User: What shape does this take?
Amino acid sequence: MIRWFNSLPREKADIVLLLLAAAMVLAPHALHLPPWLSMASAALLLWRAVITVRGRRQPQLTLLAPLALLGIAGVYASYGTVLGRDPGVAMLALLLALKSLEMHGRRDIFVFVFLSFFLLLANFFHTQGILSAAWMLATVIVLLAALLSAQYGTVQPRLAQRLNLLGRMLALAVPLSAVMFLAVPRVDGPLWGAAPEDAQARTGLSDSMQPGAIASLALSSDPVFTARFSTPIPPQDQLYWRAVVLGDFDGATWTRRGAKGRAPASDSRIDIALQGQPSQYEVTLQASGQRRIFALDVPRSIERLPGNPYVVSSALEVLTIQPITSTVRYRASSQARYRLQAGLSAAQQQPWLALPAGSNPRSVAWARALRGSGAHALAPADAVAAVLEHFRRAPFRYTLQPPLLGKHGVDDFLFRTQAGFCEHYAGSFVVLMRAMGIPARVVTGYQGGARNSDGASLTVRQSDAHAWSEVWLAGRGWVRIDPTGAVAPLRTERNLDAALPPPPSPLTAWRALAGLDGGAHGALAAWRQQWQQAEHAWSSWVLDTTPQRQRAMLDHLKNLPAKQLAVACAVLAVLSAVAGGLVWWRQARQGDPLDALYAQFCRQQARRGYSRAPHEGPHGYAARLAAGKATQEAHAATAQFLAIYAAMKYGNAHPDEQLRARRSLRRLLTQCR
Assistant: This one.
């Protein structure tokens, strides 16, 4: 491939390199652009490549203008507008592909390259991971190589030499970039002041829940947060990360009580009694564009976020005042044993008993019949146990693809389909509890987490999203009940993959090999753990360099003794001077390879008694040497040596020709002896 590229004429090679760079720029965006736009961009770039290689004429403006208008119409049809972040990126991708068909001169090349850089930067809107950074670095190198190619005159080095030069340029820029990364003041807020438009898709949880809402998250492995424990990690079945409490039900959808989307007022009179030893941990929460703070059920204390305080509702929901638009860290402690609001009055219980009139009549009737009435009525704790036992004995299935439900969704789920995900079990359980006169509510959040190889941290992903229930029992307060565990106990004891039925062969063998079946000895499980650790380190040291951490680091430097700072600065100065001296010495020692060969030739002739005069050039020196006493072969080698040297020194030779000439000069130097 490289040989074919080097065989192309210079103009064609430059265009092909530009098209390769554009393809690398557009490749990451293909995951987020409409499919038609990705295919159209690829087709336009391929069209220009064929035109370039075959020497065809470029399309006229009369053809490009309708194509541009058609593409703009397609963007409008896909997004409903041409303004905004995602439509803007789509427009840039379309314009870059069309610009490839309209490049004629050096100015067009510069516009094409700078537009590529801008579109490459827009990829940070979607991902900032390790693989993305590596791909973007490679793309930058190819873009710079294309830009450098446009700067050369008639003589242009080979592609490998240009890439080598760019590598050295980037190596020199790395120390300066590191200093700027640490020292340049940072500002709060996301890139270009734009909050993520897909924040809910990345965070996963919303202020409402309906069948299928959480099941759709199980297919995503995107990380939500990482928790590093300074105390032993609790057992897997106690890792409930509380987020949203849902209390209002309209027959199909569960929503939070109060105004939708607004942070609840802080309630400093939460009646809670904590028991046992707390778990201490630090959470690194990814940017979400939402206001949720995650903590183990139930949180005892949560560190305040600088510049973004949070409030706690009476249901122990923790929400910040401003959306979380960058990675944040906070320390927290939680206790698995607690008693929450054990003294609720009848008026305070009433909102957690409400059911819509006429909704799910069969479920309501069955629940009331199960509990009974009067002296024979089951106690609340016994009623809870009876419903859980029903879930265990009836043929319920845990699945990500349950059948569709009708108008009375709980009735259909309990008595017809009997197949669902955690939201089906939690929602129907709360309906049955309320029908029995027991206050109940739905809680959504995350359950579990993948333990990392360091043994002290775990990573919670979108696939860990979960819904469970809370019932209020007199004297005990709100008690967590997870009806999903009655049907699929492996969901809380291990993970989601262990609870789901195994996929059909041959995928079963692959999942076992990859360690995705819950087994501890998958051949790829260790690699997956190491990769998670690397992602966490990247997030901590690169993406999580917030203004607060930057100021803390600078404050730490300012607090160092003056003597230590002086010594450190002196050491850095000495190292810089030594490095600069080594570079200068090496360059001075090496010099021009062509001149080094000429100097060696002159010293050789001086030993024979024919020293070169200071004013003598190669041709004059050759004429004088021709009159000397030497063999015919020596005269021929001497004349050829000086002729090649003069042509290379004062001509406009290609780098490849210079390389071949130096080889010839070394051979002739031996013959001149």
